[in-house]
Write a structure and sequence with these properties.
Blueprint lengths: L5 E4 L9 H14 L6 H5 L6 H12 L5 H19 L11 H10 L3 E5 L5 H8 L7 E3 L12 H10 L6 E5 L2 H9 L3 E5 L10 E3 L7 H6 L1
Parallel strand pairs: 1-2, 1-4, 2-3, 4-5, 5-6
């Protein structure tokens, strides 16, 4: 049992289910380029940066593009994605997320967002929960993508706590690895078969409680 002082949350797939919007936008782009990819392949895009996601997709389609073309394609995808997230409402907060964030704060635990997305502020403002985080670290603030722990270490530093006092909530394999690489506890959101490195795996934040947190 550790003295936990802070919880760091991934956004996509933990607080909101934006993975479906990422999938729709990437699929539209692939289709325009003349190919398709499966939902299973899409699993490998979770937690992965925009640029790297595009490179993986182009690889699946056997398509080669210059760096300038890649930039244009990533921008095109992001425009469609932003159109979708601009329609989001508080109803799209995943079950239990709001309640657990509020419980943490009521218990004087610090809270941070640690996301790879450059669109995190748009999403947080749309669903109305930006004020529930003491600090927000996202794709605009980091140079090394998950599984590098940079995003979570920056969060811990901003909160003034040490990595060993943090618990990270993540739905991506790369995200759980990033937490462990940073010396933090990791709670996986998803399946035990996929998130093998997590200290605890739950299906959603509706299964989380302060009692479970303190047992980690
Ligand atoms: C992660 C998502 O949170 O953010 C990835 O899991 C996404 O699917 C990545 O590619 C980057 O997001 P954005 O919004 O900056 O394109
Ligand atoms: Mg995620």
């Amino acid at each position: 049992m550790t003295d936990i002082k802070a919880c760091i949350f991934d956004l996509d797939g933990v607080i909101v289910d934006t993975a479906v919007y990422h999938y729709k936008a990437w699929k539209r782009l692939a289709n325009e380029l003349g190919f398709d990819f499966t939902e299973e392949q899409n699993e490998h895009l979770k937690g992965v940066s925009r640029v790297r996601s595009l490179q993986l997709i182009l690889g699946w389609g056997g398509v080669t593009k210059t760096e300038a073309e890649q930039e244009e394609l990533a921008t095109r995808k992001n425009t469609w994605y932003v159109e979708m997230i601009n329609q989001m409402t508080p109803a799209e907060i995943l079950p239990g997320a709001l309640e657990f964030l509020e419980a943490c704060r009521a218990d004087s635990l610090k809270t941070a967002l640690g996301s790879a997305s450059k669109n995190s502020m748009t999403i947080l403002n749309k669903v109305g929960i930006a004020q529930l985080f003491d600090t927000i670290v996202d794709g605009n603030h980091v140079s090394a993508p998950k599984p590098d722990p940079e995003v979570f270490l920056k969060g811990a530093e901003a909160l003034g706590v040490s990595p060993t006092e943090c618990v990270v909530f993540e739905d991506a394999i790369a995200g759980v690895q990033a937490a462990k690489n940073g010396g933090m506890k990791a709670v996986g959101i998803g399946s035990v078969q996929t998130l093998t490195q997590a200290d605890l795996v739950i299906s959603g934040l509706n299964e989380m409680s302060l009692a479970k947190l303190k047992e980690l």
